[in-house]
Amino acid sequence: MKKVQMQLETVMGMNRKVKGSNLDKLEYLDMVIKERMRIHQVQLLIIPIAIEGRLHDPNAWDEAEKFWLKRLEGT
C-alpha cells in the first residue's frame, strides 16, 4: 500500500480527487486492482461463468496463488 500511496501523492499531490486524466498515470494502482481481481474475482450475477479455475491455473499463471504484481507490468 505504501507504493500506491506514494504514486498517488506523486501523480496527484495533495489533491486527493482522482480525475480521468490521472488514471493513465496510476499504473501501479491499476496493477494492484487487476491482480486483486484475478485472485478474488468478482462474482458474475448475469452470466455465471466458472473462471476461478482458469484464474488460479498453474498452467496459465506462474505462481498462480501468489499476489504478484510483476505479472501485470505493461498491461
From TrEMBL:
Coiled-coil blocks: none
UniProt cross-references to Gene3D superfamilies, sorted A to Z: Cytochrome P450
Q: Where is it localised?
A: Membrane
Write down any Gene Ontology CC term.
membrane
* Record keywords: Heme, Iron, Membrane, Metal-binding, Monooxygenase, Oxidoreductase
SUPFAM superfamilies registered for this protein in UniProt: Cytochrome P450
Q: Which InterPro entries match?
A: Cyt_P450, Cyt_P450_sf
Needed cofactors: heme
Q: Name one GO molecular function term.
A: iron ion binding
What family does this belong to?
Belongs to the cytochrome P450 family.
Looking up PANTHER family in the UniProt record yields: CYTOCHROME P450, CYTOCHROME P450 93A3-LIKE
Which protein are we looking at? Uncharacterized protein
Q: Which organism is it from?
A: Mucuna pruriens
